[in-house]
Records
---
Amino acid sequence: MAPLLLLLPLLLLISSIAPSAMAAPAHTSNWAVLVCTSRYWFNYRHMANTLSIYHTVKRLGIPDDHILLMLADDMACNARNSRPAQVFNNEDHKLNLYGENVEVDYRGYEVTVDNFLRVLTGRHDPAVPRSKRLLSDESSNVLLYMTGHGGDQFIKFQDAEEIQSHDLADAIQQMHQKGRYREILFMVDTCQASTLYSQVYSPGVLAASSSKKGENSYSHHLDMDVGVSVIDRFTYYTLQFLEGVRTDSAATLESLFRVYDPRLLMSNASFRDDLFRRKLDEVRVTEFFGSVMDVKHTPSGYSGFTGDPTRRSDRRRSEGEAKPRREEREATAAAAAAASELEVGAGDEGDWVLGVSCLLIGVTTVLWHKALRTD
Ligand SMILES: *[C@@H]1O[C@H](CO)[C@@H](O)[C@H](O)[C@H]1NC(C)=O
């Protein structure tokens, strides 16, 4: 017991070095950053685009605390909205996108280039709450969706400022350096959209957009009741595809990217996969629009909290039950080992060993800190 505890500082040191040496982390979480950059009533469709994607990723399993929703204007409560507190992406008015369950993280004048870059890079004022931060790590797949008015190498934020493709590329590089993503799917619905990701140079980024350089992106249809266009074409056909996707669907990004017909879009959808490590027909849509769940199946109930496991197995034997299954026996043995360790810790001898070990760890830590300081 004692020599083991003496090794603890060394183990701590090793474990703090190990992660940086590891390659290709597993995919363990999903995040989404959904940004509508437009203000004003006539840009209703951009908010509807964003809310539609928001509902889709929620339906496919990304929890709200892993979604950063940025909406520059509040169409639902606009005085011109003939259907107050509601937003629709279709003239059939079947789905109110602004129902009870919409958590906007950045709204109104909070949707700025500055805040957007802070969300991506994680450089916040300490007072910013966790709900407004992208807390992804090197095992996270991040869906980044943007819509608004753009042009060659930029997208406008609220008619007041714009973000340039170089700034975006550098922000993504910072994310890469800080281990804030494993893979990114960057989708843009705006005019000349493909120019916005043309400068990206970080590994693991896949990008898709509604139009090429020199092309406009168009809205899908007008709602005579609401009085404005309610959705853009690229997002409309994306949603049409995603409506057929369930959490267990095997649909791939390749099949999604194939649905964009230039005749329907009135622009050429564009893609970029030179930085992406995998083939698109091997990547499920749900790897970005859904959520991985790290679920562990146990063959039997967890017995760690049910007291003395040895006594239980005694009881089982006396009741003439069949032999416990192998997994159960292993679990029992592990629990028994843990229990006996606790007993050592609780005894007089255990206290003594623990005391000396703590002292040694303390001394080692102090010396270690001293050594670091003189460097
Ligand atoms: C799509 O690209 C082709 C080839 O560059 C071009 O001829 C065509 O006009 C574009 N389509 C639209 C709808 O802009």
---
Amino acid sequence: MGPTVSASASISPAELSAHQDALLLDRRCGRCAERTSALAVLRGSTCGACDAHLTWNGRGGVLAGLDAQRVLPRRLGYVLIGVSSGLLGVLPFAQLIVQAAGLVVLHLFQLRRPLLWLSPRRRLLARMTLKLWGSTLLVASLFGSIVLAPLHAVPGLGTLLNAGAHGVAGALCTVLYIEGGLALLRRRLRWEAEGRPLAASEWGPPLVLLGALLGFATLVIGALAAVSYALRHLSVPGTTRIVEWLLSVGS
Ligand SMILES: [Zn+2]
């Protein structure tokens, strides 16, 4: 049994409510602090140890509580990834490394926790959907980088355009992954709170994303072939090493 939380002269009702909500976010009973399940908290059930109602005190319910956390680090992450994507956009394909690393780090700090609140089968499906979503965005970024690669052969303006395009793409890709992922998880958490079983329609998003991933992979292969063909036949002067690599891949 954990420490008992009770109102006393030293703690105000508002502080007590905030403390109880913090315990609920940690998936513990707000009164006795015993471990409980995420589903019990989401559904406002009673504590198995002390029979207290696992009721959220703050505004907007427990989902708003989960949501309110880490908003500032999230926005900072978007800015950081956008800026570093722009800086690395001057080097062919280097931006993709910071993009992939940024998605992994932000996933751990922003999406992992709400994922853990889902029931096992729904969590598995949501995790698969997020992986497909992230992979689709990365392959789409790769497609953009290949299309822009010939610009590296144009010093000055080409480098500037690559930096700008990669900066925007890096930030946009990250915002789409994290905000899209959060929207998906919010909806599924609401279904958990309502006690809705896993529906067949929840397989829709991963199947659509699998199609999109295959579509972008095809576009990547097509773009590699088209860019290398164009460069070979147009004989663009001053080709960089990456363009030479593209030529070798396309041949
Ligand atoms: Zn309890």
